[in-house]
Amino acid sequence: MKFFSTGSAFVATLAAIQVAHVSADVPSSCLASPVTSCTNAIKSTKTRSLSLTSWCSSVLGCVESTTTLTGDPVTITSTKVVWETYSYDYIETEETLTSEFTDVVTTWSAVTTTTLTPIWTVERFVVMTVQPRARRWDEAAHPKDLLKRAKTTSICPSAIETQACSCILTACAPVATKDARSTVREKVTETSVSIVDVPITYTNIEWAGTFTTFVEEYTETETTGVLSTHTTTIKCTPSSTNSFFYLQATDAPPVNGQYWWVAPSNPRLLRFSIEATFTPDILDATVFSLDSANRLITRHKGGTLYANIDSWGGFQLVHHLTRGEMQYRNYNYMRCEARPPSGKYPGEFKELYCLADGYFKNDVFNYCPIYLEWFNAPLVLGTSWSETAPDCFPIVFLIKPVCGGDEA
To answer: DSSP of 320-348, one letter per residue?
Structure first.
């Protein structure tokens, strides 16, 4: 089944023709036998009212005409009324109320600032123009295209056919009116205001403040370390192998030329640990050696101390603990070796290389001033040199034999 659409003007025209046909008086000429026969023949041939009207319009020479209205836009205004009510308070009675308060002042200081970056997604719209599709009746002619079909072969003799169509259609379609003016719709809001006076009771509050000053007393404890001296004698025997050595720092400007000194820091970082520090005087420097397992050790009044780091990461402070503390805390030993001189430093001294036990490959010495400030423990053994966060210096230790020569 195919559907055809017709314009509103044409439908109105057709309706007007049909109404005129029904309501008009029938002329006597339409009752003549030849005319009646022709009328019936036309109606029997044109079974659809639309087809009949179109065909007779063609026989009568009716011309479809349209008048287009142009000019200023047509304005359609709609009005909306909004009711608003305002209340105004006026003091009818007044009372006084005394209120007590305690003064508490809190000062807030920002310690951290956080910044948001919205991502705004900008939507880009691309407008594409599509050509309108041809209407069905603009294409190849269809056999049922009633409005544009050619005049069919006469059903009756020409004069009778014209008279018969005059009896079917009392008049041609009137001029159709097409409104081409644009429509502007305006919405107008009108506000109606009503005012209501509300009596209130005004409360006059008198404030009675209680100001109290509390004095908090506390004891400030200042710790001043006192270092006692215990002397250990190392004998140097000519022509005998001696494995004791000093460690002199290089490449770290704050301690260049100074010696590794194992001494209690003030205040001590950990109660069970003795930290690494530095001294410019070789007479105060710590004497180190390597045990049979290549662990870096030093003799101490409390026993042998082992150089170590904890096992929790790839950038750790260097501690010195006894064997018992090492086993109890499961810290990692530093196992070291003397490597040949690199040629970068005068004296052709061998250089210390250490690798800590454990999962992380901690084998790079760092001197970190910020850890000296925070913990009095500036020496770190890490998986790499930290140039930033924290700012550190790479540090190399030269091995200087205690007894002279290059036995280390």
So the answer is: EE-HHHHHHHTPEEEEEEEEPP-SSSTT-
